[in-house]
Amino acid sequence: MDYKAPEQDAKFLLFDLFRVQDIWSEIPALSDFSEDLTQAIVAEGARLTSEVIAPTNQIGDEEGAHWEDGVVTTPAVFKNAYQEVAQGGWLGIAGNPDFGGQGMPKMLACLVEEMLWASNSSLYLYGTLTVGSTLAIDTHGTPEQKQTYLPKMYSGEWAGAMALTESHAGTDLGIMRSRAEPQANGSYSITGTKIFITGGEHDLVENIIHLVLAKLPDAPPGTKGISLFIVPKFLVDEDGSLGERNGWASGSIEHKMGIRASATNVINYDGATGYLLGEENQGLAAMFTMMNYERLSVGLQGLGSGDLAYQQAAAYAKDRLQGRASTGAQNPDGPADSLLVHPDVRRMLLSQRAYNEGGRAFALFVGLQLDLAKFNGDKDAGRLSELLTPIAKAYLSDKGFEGAVNAQQVFGGHGYIKEWGVEQIVRDARIAQIYEGTNGVQAADLLGRKVMRDNGATLRQFVDMMAQSEVAEEFQPALNEALDRLIRVTSSVIERSAEDPNLIGAVSTDYLELTGLTMFAWLWARMAAIAPDDEFGQAKKVTARFFFDRLLPKAEGLEAGLVADSASVMSMLDDSF
Amino acid sequence: MDYKAPEQDAKFLLFDLFRVQDIWSEIPALSDFSEDLTQAIVAEGARLTSEVIAPTNQIGDEEGAHWEDGVVTTPAVFKNAYQEVAQGGWLGIAGNPDFGGQGMPKMLACLVEEMLWASNSSLYLYGTLTVGSTLAIDTHGTPEQKQTYLPKMYSGEWAGAMALTESHAGTDLGIMRSRAEPQANGSYSITGTKIFITGGEHDLVENIIHLVLAKLPDAPPGTKGISLFIVPKFLVDEDGSLGERNGWASGSIEHKMGIRASATNVINYDGATGYLLGEENQGLAAMFTMMNYERLSVGLQGLGSGDLAYQQAAAYAKDRLQGRASTGAQNPDGPADSLLVHPDVRRMLLSQRAYNEGGRAFALFVGLQLDLAKFNGDKDAGRLSELLTPIAKAYLSDKGFEGAVNAQQVFGGHGYIKEWGVEQIVRDARIAQIYEGTNGVQAADLLGRKVMRDNGATLRQFVDMMAQSEVAEEFQPALNEALDRLIRVTSSVIERSAEDPNLIGAVSTDYLELTGLTMFAWLWARMAAIAPDDEFGQAKKVTARFFFDRLLPKAEGLEAGLVADSASVMSMLDDSF
Fold first, then answer.
1. Which residue does chain A place closest to B197, by CA atoms?
2. Residue A97 pLDDT greater than 80, yes or no
3. Catalytic site residue A26?
4. Which domains does chain A have, with CATH numbers?
């Protein structure tokens, strides 16, 4: 499948919308990232993903990953593609410069990640788990651990994986059974079986560093008794060379709906050697360092899938001749007009675009908050990024899947057969709504934790900030209404939840959708205000208008549904289901 | 996958909601269908689909259909299952009794079809094309054609297929190229290549009767120059025995996202012998006899997939222990509570149920109109069935897919792997939104043809009828509001479309969703009014409340979006897509 990275939009968002040139120049660690350098990085990422990686996407799906006697084989075309990603330094772009990382701003990393996801989700899964693992090691590791693992992982010579889930313990990690026995030499002996371990075993690298959650013998019950361990495939000798094979093996890989070239392993730990990462019994918090990174990344996966799907559908709609415009033939010399004359086809394409471009702006805005928190110690930005992360994960992955389904619909029957590739995007995109905490879990996190923990204060502060932004005049009234609605609904839910403890859970998914719509409306109103007067800018303005005309109005229906209490959700007898 | 046919709901809908005992007893052709006989038929259909067919569903997906040198092989388990469907007479249930059909009311056939779809969509595709073909032959055939084909097709000894699409001509059939040359003996020589021919070639029966659209040499251009032909795989001798192989062959089958055990053929007609069905150049109208049948049937496919998915998700949610209720442990002796304690899980299950049970009631209501039109010559009912058919096709298939996706979400990661089967339902359900006219085509048919052709008169008449129904008091105000909204939006769109010719196309999909929601609201309000005071009835009432609390409010958002004109949809430059 052809893929063209969104270079022009990236430039618009970074330099026109968010004006990073003014922000980064004030931050010593980022002042090297000039406009020229940034654009060169984006251009090189665009070249790599469009020319090298995208051509491996469909082949990878057809070939899939294979398991035999504990050995996992990835598609043949993946070897070179992964090497190019690794050797280009793309897995260390946001990494710690003290250990070989490139220390790029998260905003830039977000753009690169989107391209990597879009061009081949299965392939980049091996990368993103590596990146997430380095983040956990960098944040919680000892200086020796960082020195041992980070340089080799940033360079892509070694990969990472996270081992959380057990067959009976998915969302509910507190009931996991994997054990860690302290050994005399300070290491731990890890025993248990983990499932759904993305990239737990594969043939792309020489060593794979697992981060494994397990319980110490005297651990308190539940989530407060979970510790995190570094459990490499090959133990690392003191000189950094690879030693003996550790005591774990892949028991099988899953047969999945999509991301078929990503190996999802069952891993059996049989007294494997592990090293404590961070503090005892603080494993879940340490793992969340990685999870939060992964959650934004999975949102970018949804966005990448959505953009890849849009590009296929737009190209098909331009080429495919079928039917005539209701206002008279537009291509009178041809046998029929292009699909683009049909308003319903345009509606599908514009919906995809509005969510994709809105989603890209949203992801970069979250990235900006992460940068301000990390490099400026800005606590408000840190809290805001925590509020926005579940929205980025769930709303972008929901809209990515919806967009892929819409793109498939534009293709008609040709979208359902493998040949055109768009059905693969639908299958691949679906996982982003499920893993790294299902989107229901994200919604519960948003409303039940992030909004409730300060009674909506962070949200209100953000709404104030949105209300004071400079936006396109024509959208100001609708935006104001949307912001008022979000405040009104938030206040109402907080108030009513005191008497109705199931309310939060009953409304959280619709609430998340309302926040997503509202924040996208703000971004579209801002983008429309600064869009240039060229073709690119005109398209932005039309898409903004479409968003306000046709997508934002859904918020009215969401509010109307959020008025209900939890009774109708809770009163069905269990046996009646 | 386990499947339990909805016997109790069928009884409730037929005898309590629609009171068919009062209707059928007044229609001579249907007066034999007593309550006892009807329940026995439903029970036997339930047994067949639950015990014989459902166990072939996952195996069929794994094995798929295979093509080699023009020979198409279906999964081994399909042979016996198809024989049981055929020998049980299930393909002739609604057929003409003069030629061996059983003349059942359409309402009853709808229930049976839903079960057949639910238990194995791939398998029933071979059946539904056969049923649709018999309907076209019965309506348009000569007495000799009926005698030659119908008995063998009703009995399932021969199958049917419809050959419309060409690679460049999908929705736009007017540009097809297949030719029919008249022969001296009154037959025609058919030449051309058709794609997407479901069941065009397979190994389940001894003969396959194609209905093929092609153009006569002197045909007028476009859709007015298309004729329909009967083109059997084996020519039939005068004594009814099979003669020589006809001049067509399967060139290949498609590799598809789902319904993998249904063979989707490319068929090459190379001077094949065809017999005109109906009048010259009237082929499209004749084909639409079949298409309209198929469209309701595809709606039932969506419903069947939705119910199958719901059943998997509900069973999983009851069994799977994960997390604790926010109001305190419900299963304190177990490691965790069941998923059912989580409001968001219940929300997903209740949404599925509300759309499934609403959809079943809606499909039966359409079936009732078809029965009244066919057996009583009721023209109002006929017009109403035409208005409702695109809604049945699109809304039920949209909600079936959405429900399957929701069911998959309830499973979390386990929903994405093949083992549990629910990902197959998602892949299978997706096609129902695409084939037999995409759901965008259905929306254009609903608003652009069925509503516009009488300026909304049939719709208004139906809204009046809904407003006068006896419904549960608690839902009367919300229902009235919904009915007013539908009238308001319809009037507004009709009025504005005079000045804005692209408006119909720009809003048709949202308009179809609004009609579906409104009509489901009416059915839920009626069902709640008559639901008995037992567990079944309580569940109905709770689901009705959930529908009014949480699903119907979406209509407010739809109306708000339908206010817009077509400008934002149409003003993007083609090159900017």
1. A413
2. yes
3. no
4. 292-567 (1.20.140.10)
Range B491-498 average pLDDT: 98
What is the Cα–Cα distance from B488 to B468, expressed in whole angstroms?
18
> Which of the residues of B are catalytic?
436
Interval A9-53: pLDDT, tens: 999 999 999 999 999 999 999 999 999 999 999 999 999 999 999
Contact A493, A447 (CB under 8 A): yes
Scan residues 490-509 of A and list those with Cβ closer than 8 Å to B.
Answer: 501-506, 508-509
Q: Is the pLDDT of residue B291 over 90?
A: no
- Min Cα distance B539 → chain A (Å) is 6
Contact A255 B417 (CB under 8 A): yes
**Residue B171 pLDDT level (bands cut at 50, 70, 90):** confident
In this predicted complex, what is the ipTM? 0.96
Cβ distance B572 to A539 less than 8 Å, yes or no, reads: yes
Neighbour count for residue B51 (Cβ, 10 Å): 12
Do the chains contact at A554 and B568, CB–CB below 8 Å? no
- Residue percentage of chain B with pLDDT more than 90: 93
B residues 341-360 lying closer than 8 A (beta carbon) to A: 342-350
- Residue B158 sits at φ, ψ, to 5 deg, of -115, 155
Q: What is the rounded distance in angstroms from the CA atom of residue A127 to the CA atom of residue A133? A: 10
B336 touches A at CB < 8 Å: yes
- Alpha-carbon radius of gyration of chain A: 24
**What is the predicted pLDDT for the residue at A291?**
78
Contacts of A412 in chain B (CB under 8 A): 170-171, 434, 438
Chain B: give the shortest CA distance to residue A417, in Å: 4
**Which tens digit of pLDDT belongs to each residue from B427-436?**
999 999 999 9
- The two beta strands, B207-214 and B158-163, are parallel
pLDDT exceeds cutoff 80 at A292: no
- Residue B571 in contact with residue A533, Cβ under 8 Å? no
Residue B473: exposure state from Cβ atoms within 10 A (0-12, 13-18, ≥19) = exposed
SS (H, E, C) B310-349: HHHHHHHHHHCECCCCCCCCCCCCCCCCEHHHCHHHHHHH
Please judge whether B350 and A426 are an interchain contact, meaning their C-beta atoms are less than 8 angstroms apart: no
Question: So what's the pLDDT on residue A7?
Answer: 98
Smallest CA–CA distance, residue B235 to chain A, in Å, is: 30
Mark yes or no for CB contact A561/B549 under 8 Å.
yes
**Residue A330, burial from CB neighbour count under 10 angstroms (0-12, 13-18, 19+):** middle
Is A334 in the B-facing interface, judged by CB distances under 8 Å? no
Name the pLDDT band for B41 (thresholds 50, 70, 90).
very high
**In the A/B pair of chains, how many CB contacts fall below 8 A?**
289
> Residue A417: its chain B contacts at CB < 8 A?
254-257, 264
Q: Are A542 and B440 an interchain contact pair (Cβ–Cβ within 8 Å)?
A: no
Nearest CB to B440 within list A409, A413, A508? A409
Answer yes or no: is pLDDT of A290 > 80.
no
Task: State if pTM tops 0.90.
Answer: yes
The whole-angstrom separation of Cα A372 and Cα A468 is 20
pLDDT range class, residue B289, cuts 50, 70, 90: confident
Instruction: Tell whether B338 lies on the interface with A, counting CB pairs under 8 A.
Output: yes
Over range A101-106, report the average pLDDT. 96
Cα B353 off chain centre by: 18
Give the gap in angstroms from C-alpha B316 to the nearest C-alpha of chain A.
Answer: 11
**How far, in Å, CA of B343 to CA of A104, rounded?**
41
Which pLDDT band holds residue B19 (cuts at 50, 70, 90)?
Answer: very high
* Partner A contacted by B196 (CB < 8 A): yes
| Per-residue confidence band for B520, with pLDDT thresholds at 50, 70 and 90 | very high
